[in-house]
Write a structure and sequence with these properties.
The protein has ten helices and nine strands. By secondary structure, the chain is α/β, with parallel strands linked by helices. The strands form three sheets. The protein has a four-stranded mixed beta sheet with strand order 4-5-7-6, covered by helices on one side. The termini are far apart.
Length: 239
């Protein structure tokens, strides 16, 4: 069943939307959807001042909304995160889906990747565990050639190493990346080679227009990733 977080995520990536558009989106995300329940949730969010009714049947975020980025968290991601927590209770990790960034892209590729970032010293153990306990293909830190040969176009789980002090947030009990981490990772990791040329500039500009960005957090993480210059250049192009 769709949650308020799911609805607010959709609201954050759309200035205005109808109930029908929201339902179509939730079904595309493989969420169980009841139109009556969605109507009740929308009314509650309006009463709680988390959404506004722009006009009859049209909704949006309040004008004073902080527009904080909320990564889409599906039931599948919740289950995956719980499996990792049970098997590796003391491991820092985050999980998220490529579906979280598709709405900000200009040319929409067929993406269905699940990213699992885990501490460097246990990333291989996490890979082995998921490889034995998932119906999807699982890859461990693929290089550019491996990504192009085996990952592109698949419904895959990609296990990556989590950089220390990477900016994370908890959404519905799931460790997910903040928008600052996503922006820095997208600027150079092979798993995001679909964001090339003008696409990455469009991606940055779209996110900056729709969401708050903590610039100091962004550049601090970019420095740790050794790509501060590239990120600063993308920021300048996007402003």
């Amino acid at each position: 069943m769709a949650t308020n977080t799911d609805i607010l995520h959709f609201a954050a990536i759309n200035k205005q939307f109808t109930r029908k558009e929201l339902i179509v989106y939730l079904k595309e995300q493989k969420q169980a959807v009841s139109p009556n329940v969605v109507s009740i949730q929308l009314n509650r969010l309006v009463k709680g001042n988390e959404l506004v009714r722009v006009e009859r049947g049209v909704y949006g975020l309040p004008s004073d909304s902080q527009k904080n980025f909320i990564a889409f968290v599906s039931d599948e991601l919740k289950q995956l995160s719980q499996k990792i927590k049970v098997q590796f209770p003391f491991v820092n990790h985050c999980v998220w889906s490529s579906k979280a960034i598709v709405p900000f892209m200009h040319h929409i590729p067929n993406l269905n990747y699940t990213y699992v970032d885990a501490d460097r010293d246990v990333a291989e153990s996490v890979f082995d565990f998921l490889n034995d306990n998932s119906s999807k293909r699982v890859f461990l830190c693929p290089n550019q050639d491996e990504f192009n040969r085996y990952v592109v176009g698949t419904d895959a789980i990609i296990v990556r190493t989590l950089v220390s002090e990477a900016p994370l947030q908890v959404i519905e009990g799931v460790n997910t990346p903040t928008i600052e981490k996503i922006l820095v990772d997208a600027a150079g990791d092979v798993e995001f080679d679909f964001l090339q040329g003008t696409e990455i500039t469009y991606f940055y500009r779209n996110i900056i227009e729709r969401h708050n960005i903590n610039k100091s957090k962004l550049l601090r993480y970019a420095t740790r990733r050794g790509r501060r210059t590239e990120v600063e250049q993308l920021l300048n192009k996007s402003l």
